[in-house]
Design goal:
With 496 residues, the protein is of the alpha/beta class. The chain folds into 2 domains: 3-238, Rossmann fold; 256-491, 3-Layer(aba) Sandwich (Rossmann fold). It has helices spanning 41-48, 71-77, 94-98, 115-128, 144-157, 174-189, 201-207, 230-238, 292-299, 322-327, 337-341, 348-353, 368-381, 398-410, 428-443, 455-461, 484-491; strands at residues 3-12, 15-25, 30-35, 56-61, 64-66, 79-82, 162-166, 193-197, 210-215, 218-224, 256-264, 272-277, 281-286, 307-312, 315-317, 330-333, 361-362, 365-366, 416-420, 447-451, 464-469, 472-478. Strand 9 and strand 10 form a beta hairpin. Bound molecules: adenosine-5'-triphosphate and magnesium ion (MG). Adenosine-5'-triphosphate binds next to helix 1 and helix 14. Magnesium ion is lined by residues 41-42, 166, 397-398. GO terms for molecular function: ATP binding. Keywords: ATP-binding, Cell membrane, Membrane, Nucleotide-binding, Repeat, Sugar transport, Translocase, Transport. This is Ribose transport system ATP-binding protein.
Length: 496
């Protein structure tokens, strides 16, 4: 055993978040923590890495007691962590970032940095991860996927024996995610031990040796991955079997709700034309970087449009900023919840009602009781946990924060909803809740547009799918014409 968690418990202001947790991590294994949003996965990690203090229990490292009071204790023991928000400095090079805080000095000469050794070692560390890079390259010139690999290289440079990754693929494109999975397989061959958290069951099945399933802060069981099907994982995780991952309802196609005519984002950009109708979910597929988020942001007035027109229920709209967009009946549920979607230092109630304060105002004042009612309704509808409307949003688990973003926009009574990667970081059970919500929006006559990089999701929920490649629409497919191959072909510009 490399790491043992023994009877670990943790409560936040009286709410028990971890109950008597016992988990063993074997040397050389990829061990997954699996559980619904709010199950306690990130809290366990934060206790191991010294970000939080446990209330009771103990940690053992190679059989010895391990005391972790602060993050440097974990690093000194040999535990490295790759967080979802990367901690690199964009203006510095790969080598400088890897050795930041533990720079190599030339022997004898006090405080002179040994740049060439650091560069060489950085290059070798990246090679261990299968990356042939120039160590002088600045971080800001790398994609998110490669940046993450630099974080891993940094952990290797610190001689970590255990690397912990909390939802590392949730912000990556398919290709980058694949690269990370290959890197993990490579590290495992080199003898590295990895604790891995993800909501993507296929990748868990592929890379892990064992899975510990958590529910509501308690350990349910540790299973061998090879002997466990994805359906079993789901059943253990949510406590029941999930018969339909995509609860699609067919509605009659109605009026045109939203239409984009000859829109260009820049003078040289391709013209974009598409419409969304009542009664359908319009999916927008494409590889990360295909220009879908840029388009959505521009349509919502967050970025300028160079030329073209936008119509809501046939009426031409003049959208110069998000306020105009909200007035025109648009809602944009952004993929970037931390930066754009939420006021983290505010309560759930505040976040939910901020987009439409008029609805909870009476005589010019905010009606707190009404605000509270609204928040409680959405907590119930989206099964947001914990059901505490006064808790600051930053204390919610990642997936539950995403649900708050969605609730915030549902509250606006918009006519057209544009969802950008809506289920990123959301567990399988909650995904179904989100899809059901989309169904009810369609049923109520709203336009629903969903941008997603996950092909099974796009195929599972859309009635029609447009595919983008390099800022251009390369396909417009009905549900019965669409499959993974056709979409991938259009997403890569026709050459698969
Ligand atoms: N600092 C805090 N104060 C209060 N409650 C907290 C705090 N940190 C976490 N919690 C609560 O602890 C519970 C477990 O959260 P945690 O982040 O560990 O969940 P998770 O399993 O990582 O979920 P997700 O899959 O959504 O990331 C949640 O109910 C969360 O709201
Ligand atoms: Mg988490």
């Amino acid at each position: 055993m490399l790491l043992e968690l023994k009877n670990i418990s943790k409560a936040f202001s009286g709410v028990q978040v971890l109950h008597d947790m016992n988990i063993d991590i074997k040397k050389g294994e990829v061990h997954v923590l699996l559980g619904e949003n709010g199950a306690g996965k990130s809290t366990i990690i934060k206790i191991i890495t010294g970000a939080y203090q446990k209330d009771t229990g103990e940690l053992k490292w190679k059989g010895e007691n391990l005391v972790i009071n602060k993050p440097s204790d974990a690093i000194n023991a040999g535990i490295g962590t790759i967080y979802q928000e990367l901690n690199l400095i964009p203006e510095l090079s790969i080598a400088e970032n890897i050795f930041l805080g533990h720079e190599k000095k030339r022997s004898g000469k006090f405080s002179l940095l040994d740049r060439s050794t650091m560069k060489n070692e950085a290059k070798q560390l990246m090679e261990r991860l299968g990356q042939d890079v120039d160590p002088d390259e600045l971080i800001q010139n790398l994609g998110v996927g490669q940046q993450q690999l630099v974080e891993i290289a940094k952990a290797l440079s610190l001689n970590c024996e255990l690397i912990i990754m909390d939802e590392p693929t949730s912000s990556l494109s398919e290709r980058e995610a694949e690269q990370l999975l290959v890197t993990i397989e490579r590290l495992k061959k080199q003898g590295m031990t990895i604790i891995y958290i993800s909501h993507r069951l296929e990748e868990i099945k592929r890379i892990s040796d064992r899975i510990t399933i958590l529910r509501d802060g308690s350990k349910i069981r540790t299973v061998d991955t090879a002997a466990t099907s994805i359906d079993e994982m789901i059943a253990l995780m949510v406590g029941r079997s999930l018969d339909n991952k995509f609860p699609k309802i067919q509605f009659e196609k109605g009026k045109e709700v939203f239409s984009v005519k000859n829109v260009k984002l820049t003078p040289d950009a391709p013209e974009i034309n598409f419409s969304a109708y009542q009664g359908e979910i319009l999916g927008i597929s494409g590889l990360v970087g295909a220009g879908r988020t840029e388009l959505a942001r521009a349509l919502f007035g967050a970025d300028p449009i160079y030329s073209g027109e936008v119509f809501v229920f046939g009426e031409k709209q003049h959208i110069r900023n998000p306020i105009d967009a909200i007035k025109a009946g648009l809602a944009f549920i952004s993929e970037n919840r931390k930066e754009e979607g939420l006021f983290l230092d505010q309560s759930l109630t505040f976040n939910k009602t901020i987009t439409k304060l008029n609805k909870v105002k009476s005589k010019g004042l905010i009606n707190v009781r009404k605000q509270k009612e609204v928040a409680e309704k959405y907590i119930k509808d989206l099964s947001i946990r914990p059901n505490n409307i006064n808790l600051f949003v930053k204390y919610f688990s990642g997936g539950n924060q995403q649900k708050v973003v969605i609730a915030k926009w549902l509250f606006t009574d918009a006519k057209v909803f544009i969802f950008d990667e809506p289920t990123r970081g959301i567990d399988v059970g909650a995904k179904v809740e989100v899809y059901k919500l989309m169904n009810s929006l369609v049923e109520e006559g709203a336009g629903v547009i969903v941008i997603s990089s996950e092909l099974p999701e796009i195929l599972g929920i859309s009635d029609r799918i447009i595919v983008m490649h390099e800022g251009k629409i390369t396909a417009n497919l009905n549900r019965d014409e669409a499959n993974q191959e056709v979409i991938m072909k259009a997403a890569t510009g026709g050459c698969s």
